[in-house]
Amino acid sequence: MYMDICYGGVPSKIPQNSMGIRGYDYVEFYVGSAKQVAFWHMKALGLDLVGYLGPETGHRDRVSYLLATKTNLKIVITSALQPGTYEISSFVQKHGDGVKRWCVEVVNVNETFSKAVKNGAVPIKKPYRLEDKDGFVEQAAIRLYDDTEINFINYDNYKGLFKPGYEKPVMNIQVSRKETNLKIVDHIVGNVYVNEMDYWASYINSALDFETFIYFGPGDISTKYSALLSKVVRSKDSVIKNPINEPLEAARKSQIDEFTEQYNGSGIQHVALVTNNIIETVANMKENGVEFLDAPPSTYYDDIRKRSEERGGLVTEDISELERLGILCDVELDSGGYLLQLFTKPLFDRPTFFYEIIQRRKGASGFGQGNFLALFEAIERDQERRGNL
Ligand code: FE2
C-alpha cells in the first residue's frame, strides 16, 4: 500500500513567487491522544495512515502519525509521551487540541528563512537538517499568531517515506469507510484578537512578500447578533491563501471571541480542503460519521435556484442534492464562477478548530462571502447551545 508513494515534496514544481514557495506541505496538530485523532482522520476524513514516528522508531518522548492521500494532502498528528515534552504538553494544556504549524514546501530553506527574517518574521527555529540513511530534509520555522508556526521545508535530497524518523506504521489499523477524495489544502484561516488583524496581515505580507487579496470591513460580515472583520492575504501567485479574522463589537459575542476565549489565544480556526465533487465527498463524510453545520433554511436554496437561472443555469449540480446535504453555494459576480462549501462542526472538545470542504467551480476565487450570513448564523446556533453567544 505504501511502497510506491513518497510523501516528500514535489521538486519539479517551479514557484512563481519571490519566496520560492512551491505550495502547502503538511499541517501538524498537537493533541492529547494522537492515536485517537489519527483514527478519526482515517475513518471520518478518509485519509490513509502512511507514516509513524514513536518509541518503535527511536523517539521515546513523542508519537506522530502521518495521514495522507495519494494527492499529497498531508496531516501530522502529534502527542507528547512524557510531561517533559514541554513544547507539546504546554501547547495542549493551554490551547486544547489544535494546529501547531503549517508548512510550505520551498526551493531553498536557507534563502526563504533569511528573506523572511530580514523582512520582519520572528525566527522560531533557524534552518536545521534531519538526516538518515535516505538523505536529509531541511526545515525552519517562523512565528505566527500566539503559539503557531509557519515552517519552510525542502525534501529534494530525501528519498525516504516522509521525513527522517518516520517509518511505515507499526500498527495495523483497519477501518471501513466511504472514500472522500479530498485533494489538497485550499486555504488556512487564523482567528486573532481585536486590533490584531492588521498587525498579522502586515506581518505576513512583509515577511513572505504576500499581498492583501480581500478586505471585509465593518458591516461586510455580520449577523443580527455579531460581527467580524477579515483580511485575506496570499502569495502573489495565489498558491498560499491565508484569511485572518478578528471580532468586531456587536450586540452579542462574536464567534471569533468564542474561539480566542476557548483556545486561550490566537491561532488556526480552520483548514479548507479541496474536493472535485463536493456532493459525493460530503455525502460520504456524513456516512463516515462527520458532523457538519446545520443546513440553512429552504429559502436559501430558492435564492440559489433563482440566481443560477438568472445566469443561464450556471450551477450544474443538482440544487436539491445541495439542499439535502446542506452544502452552501456562493454565485460570484466578480469571477463569474461559483463556490460550493461546507464547514464541519468543531473537531475537538473545545469549540475551536474545524475543517471546511470546498469546491471552486468555473474560476471562483473568493471565500464564499455570499454564504457568510448562512454560515455564521449556523455557527451562532451552536454557540448559543454552548452558552457562549
Ligand atoms: Fe474558509
State which percent range the strand residues make up.
25-35%
The CATH first-level class of the largest domain comes to Alpha Beta
Number of domains: 2
Structural class: alpha+beta
Order of helices and strands: EHEEEHEHEEEEHEEEHEHHHEEEH
How would you characterize the largest beta sheet?
8 strands, mixed
**Tally the helices: what do you get?**
9
* End-to-end gap: 47 Å
Q: Tell me the total number of β-strands.
A: 16
Task: State the shape.
Answer: globular
Radius of gyration: 20 Å
- Say which molecules are bound, naming each kind only once: fe (ii) ion
Helix content: 10-25%
Low-confidence segments, given as residue ranges, are none
Question: CATH superfamily of the largest domain, called what?
Answer: 2,3-Dihydroxybiphenyl 1,2-Dioxygenase, domain 1
Question: Could you report the average pLDDT, rounded to the nearest whole number?
Answer: 93
* Architecture per CATH nomenclature, i.e. the level-2 architecture of the largest domain: Roll
At CATH level 3, the topology of the largest domain is: 2,3-Dihydroxybiphenyl 1,2-Dioxygenase, domain 1
Strand order of the largest sheet: 2-3-4-1-5-8-7-6
